[in-house]
Amino acid sequence: MKYTLVLFSFFLSQVIVSQYISIDENYTAQQLVENVLINSNCASISNVSVTGANFPTGELSYGYFSGAGTTFPFQDGIILSSGKVSIAPGPTTPTADEGENIVWNGDPDLDQILNVNSSNATVLEFDFIPLGDMISFDYIFSSEEYEENTNYPCQYSDGFAFLLKPTGASVYQNLALIPNTTTPVKVTTVHPTITANGGCPAQNEQYFDQFNPTEYPTVYNGQTVVLTAQSSVIPGTQYHIKLVIADEDDARFDSAIFLKGGSFNLGIDLGQDRTIANENPVCPSEDLILDATATGVQTYQWFFNNSPITSPTTDPLLTLPAPHDPNTQDGTYSVELVYNPTCSSISEIKLEFAPNLTILEDVFTECDDDAVQDGIRIFNLNTIGTQIFQNLPTGFTVSFYNDETSTLPLPMNFTNTTPFQQIIYARVDNLGYCYNIPITLNINTFNEIALDQTVYLCTGSSIILDAGSGFISYKWNTAPVQNSQTITVTSGGEYLVTLENTNGCFKTITISVEESGIATIEDINIIDIAENNSATIIPSGNGEYEFSLNGINYQDSATFNNLIAGEYTVFVRDKNGCGVSSEAFYILDFPKFFTPNGDGINDTWKIENLEKRGLENSKIYIFDRFGKLLKQISSLGNGWNGTFNGNLLPSSDYWFVLELTNGKTVKSHFSMKR
């Protein structure tokens, strides 16, 4: 068992070691450039030199690396570092931080072009004469300053540059730039969103590869994706190139440039790769011509995925006419330029062809869906995007833009800015401008007058509800659903009807049916033989009522004041037209005076209508001012004639007591005038 464990540990250590790159510091500068970086018989190279650290241990800051058998993107190449390259192999711990205790000089050209103060510079430089009109090479920038879970990428970066100029010229250009910009590649210009310690937003995140895990082929904490440095050049002209990396401001934390072996291309440039990832694939209707024209070339040989597609020819053009088939044409196209029997150069380009999509719909009509019918509404562009193309492949989405050249996508919940009709443009994400489809958004309105209503239904009857004419469809919320302009209902409630106009727009209105009915007069509360004779009507019913004593003039109040004695008829009318109820009532009062002079007018004093109220058995007593009882009269008799024992009494005030059979007693006075 002991031997088995040792053997297993040995193999495990071999597996782990094989995961890391290896470093060889025995290459000369000439070998690094001619045999590793360029590796071509066509190269005309001179004045090669390299400078860097000279650690007491003899270790260098430059050398050859091999990534064979690892997951590192390059199989081999050159490494230039601001520290020891011997510690470049993984894992990523401990930190590579070897430049602080042996500080060597920076580089003035790097300082000038990056506006920094550098130290610990490693420089590989040489002269060359290009055969074609373009040079390029691939590289990766790795750094310990890519520290995950810190804000270091927001603040710190070592500097590097690839400096190119015609020999004898005084001004360099920097080739180590973020593609299509003038921004140098650095930790601070290429990183994802940083959240630690205040953090910072992402910078050119598409060119950041990863924060490396502990078990990784190199020691560095993070790295960029594979980038390409390139420049136009004049064939036959000698150039000087200077590849330099250095610590910036301080000597802490090492960084490295990895230059891909054999990637230094001195031939021609076929252009940027045309891929879906780059959002510039070859469009279905595009006739593509690849041009490899170069001075001094004897023959051109074209390849597709390393298989010849033409015989050697003096024609530098490869024409790929539309239409295209992505299934058979996607791949790497390359051309071998043969200058002489011992000198040839290969240039390549990766091409992907956009799928040929069928436009199914490009006009979308919606209705203005709010109360203000102004031709403005919110469109769900995400839904529209799924309806434009008949055969949009899985994984592709559609974005929308204000105009043909805009690069700022519209929000997916888009509110049109031009009322009633607006044209926007749809593009398929990752397919660039292959599809730049004008999309017409139409906004119809519902401008017809259709208002909510309230109507009244008399108890026991029916009513016709009318939604109005001029609409092409009606839909009532009845059971079953009715689709006519009018319906007949026999009960109250809320009836909803959805109307469709000639624009195909809908509006729902509510017709509230409130039940109403004729009143039942439950009671009449009478206050009479008082200073203010009044009657209050007590109705019942589900209507809304108003009241009148003459059937002409109505009031909302159920109370009538200051009534004189006599018979009345109260009319109770339903305001909603469901009928009128009526009932008679009597107001009782006593005469304030009488004149017993025999003229037939007011000759006697009596209280009228007691019998009409069922009070005919009430008792009435008359007294003089001194309280002497003069007479007791009946409510049904002729009244008092102003005499006592047959003698005429004088004009004066007299008092009475009325004892009503309902238990009420009224006391007051009246005058007799002769």
UniProtKB/TrEMBL annotation:
<dbReference type="Pfam" id="PF13585">
    <property type="entry name" value="CHU_C"/>
</dbReference>
<protein>
    <submittedName>
        <fullName>T9SS type B sorting domain-containing protein</fullName>
    </submittedName>
</protein>
<dbReference type="InterPro" id="IPR026341">
    <property type="entry name" value="T9SS_type_B"/>
</dbReference>
<dbReference type="InterPro" id="IPR049804">
    <property type="entry name" value="Choice_anch_L"/>
</dbReference>
<dbReference type="InterPro" id="IPR013783">
    <property type="entry name" value="Ig-like_fold"/>
</dbReference>
